[in-house]
Specification:
single chain; 84 residues; mainly alpha
Length: 84
């Protein structure tokens, strides 16, 4: 998705008390964490970093899985023996 669309969605998710993030927190009985996320300077400065990690986390996972799929069976067996 484009950065503009992701930015608008992220803003919609976090900006209000009635946003999806706060609704999910209330449903999970974590009412203490429901807040206007962009209204608090502490959380507002951390949210762009969290969004970036969520954005590139999938790419990192695909690369990790692709690399482990290429490992020879002997390396995996050695790791299994080492861990027991």
């Amino acid at each position: 998705m484009s950065y503009i669309v992701v930015g608008i969605l992220w803003l919609w998710i976090t900006i209000t008390i009635g946003g999806p993030l706060n609704v999910a927190l209330r449903a999970a009985r974590a009412r203490l964490f429901a807040m206007p996320w962009l209204g608090d300077p502490k959380t507002a400065s951390a949210l762009p970093h969290l969004r970036h990690e969520l954005d590139v986390g999938g790419l990192h996972m695909v690369v990790l899985l692709a690399c482990t799929a290429l490992l020879p069976r002997s390396v995996i067996e050695a790791a299994e023996l080492r861990s027991t």
